[in-house]
Design a protein that fits this description.
This protein is an alpha+beta fold. It has helices at about 5, 10-20, 40-50, 100-110, 145-155, and strands at about 25-35, 60-65, 75, 85-90, 120-130, 130-140. The model is unreliable at about 1-5 (pLDDT under 50).
């Protein structure tokens, strides 16, 4: 990848700056709710891990310049990438209603993503009422915009019921 392609755009760099200068987090997210029995967290991690190569940005982190005024950070491959640090699991207390799910989502989105790692998390949530489970997706806006997030999730997930 050329140096120009690996550097953050000016807009994406601004998203980091906004986050640094305020209490506003600049991640975006989504909630996906599935019907049927939940998979095992380990199976989900293995499945996402087997497809992560389809979305290379998911395995990259920011590399900041030694002198901050020297330029925008770049995207670099994370040599110690560990899918378990990004596909996390939570279980709701039964019966797993909307309020307790919303409380968990609020907790997940209330914290800033760790900039020393790839800027995303996928939370596997089991225990929803009516035999359902969920994925809560959290990605930094410097990594993807709304449509880009949909494209990345499409690369990682199947559209079929399996």
């Amino acid at each position: 990848m050329s140096d120009d392609l690996a550097r953050l755009s000016a807009l994406d760099w601004q998203f980091l700056g906004i986050e640094d200068k305020s209490s506003t987090h600049m991640h975006i997210g989504s909630l996906l709710v599935f019907e049927g029995p939940a998979p095992l967290a380990s199976d989900l991690r293995e499945f996402i891990g087997s497809r992560i190569h389809l979305a290379p940005r998911f395995q990259q982190k920011l590399a900041f310049q030694a002198v901050p005024s020297a330029g925008k950070p770049s995207w670099v491959d994370e040599p110690d990438f560990d899918i378990a640090q990004h596909v996390l699991a939570a279980a709701l207390p039964r019966p797993g209603g909307v309020k307790v799910l919303n409380d968990l989502i609020g907790e997940i989105f209330s914290t800033r993503l760790d900039r020393s790692k790839p800027l995303w998390q996928l939370w596997f949530v089991e225990g929803l009422a009516e035999d359902r489970w969920a994925l809560v997706c959290k990605m930094h806006h410097a990594m993807v915009d709304g449509l880009g997030a949909i494209d990345l999730l499409a690369a990682l997930l199947d559209f079929g019921p399996e």
